[in-house]
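ok trying again, last paste got cut off:
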Amino acid sequence: MQRGDLRLSLRIRIIAVLSAVLSAGAVVLGLAAWQYALIAAQQAYDRLLSGATIQVAENVYVQGGVVALDPPVAAFSTLSAYDLVYYKVVDPRGVIVAGYEDLTSSATPAAMRSGIVLEDGHYQNHPVRIATIARRIDDKDAGQWATIIVAQTVNARTALARDLTFKAFAVIAAMSVLALLAVGLAVRFGLKPLALIEQEIVGRRPDDLRPIEAGRPVEIRNLVQAIDDFMRRLSERMALMQRFIADAAHQIRTPLAALDAQVELLSGPQGTRRRAEHLARVRERTTELARLTQQLLDHAMVTHRADMAQTSSLDLNEVAKATLAKSVPLTLAREVDIAFEPASPAPQIEGDAISVREALANLIDNALVHGAKSRLVVAVGQAGDRAWIEVRDDGGGFYQVEGGKLVAPFQKGERSAGSGLGLAIADEVARAHGGALEFAEEGGLTVVRLCLSVSRE
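nice, full thing came through this time. structure:
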């Protein structure tokens, strides 16, 4: 697997994200386990320390007016199993009865008389836990309250906290590993439909653009539908281009054969007059072939731009005026009165300027070559959400040819010597802009109207 595939792999990305989440969760849970372990160890050993302190207090007695202590060996044994234990007993007069003289507590007398006071401290350079309690002495000679202080180092409770934390970490690690294994299996199982779709597409022939038949889970149903829609559009476009290429090859073959025949005739012995006739026919065939080639390219361009071109705001008056100026040749074989009728106000549409200009140029060329005898008018108009550019000429109409056949590629009228692509190009552009190509007879003129939608959806 290449580096780019690693970045794009859904399986690796999902596992990586979940691993990061599980790792962060394990760290948080580990810290929480450490805190809980410290609290649990503290509470457990505080109970032992409190119990031992109470036992020491219970073993304080008065003999001959003097406070004395009978040390509880069992209590001290329990506390000193892992730690050092220090104690101190002070009688009501402040005299140290037993223990370490420098062992102190910050507990107040009121707090000590209410019960055991626990606190953290240091003694002999060791961190210790200190328990302090006061014992009432019922002897008027000895005084009233004796103070008992017991301190224990914290080694045992720290060891217990570490042991609990280690066990908690072991459980968390085991659960994290199991979770990762479960995630890996779940991802593999969850991505299996994608693998099936991949196998189906890879196993198809290049021209097999049928909808995908593999299972469609809800989560990828829209993705599969989008792929099916794309393949449907691609199939339609390929069928259109294949049909166009086949028709173009057929249409180009005829003028090429005629041109080849004229060249063959020119190569033989003949008089000057016959040579001039053949040369004229060669020029005519060459012009016809050039025009056919140009219209084939225009038709392919318009078909391609129908779904892909970027639209912009177009002023139809400006588009029609500029196209008319470029489409009319400087010299014509006959006198033709050419006029332009703009609309007021100028219609504005959202469209592809190149396609609209090509469509109008083909309509004007079609009218000049096959229609107009002495008059040609290009007019712009708008009504509601429809705008149009129409080309009128005083030709003889379309000789009862149905409109549907006129706009079909390579379909021509009975007396037309053209390629049959001009109206097809205009019709493609009109439909791409939410309109249609319309034909009419008005005032003795043949009208071809390129209708466009003012607001394209």
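cool. The longest helix spans residues 10-58. The mean pLDDT is 80.
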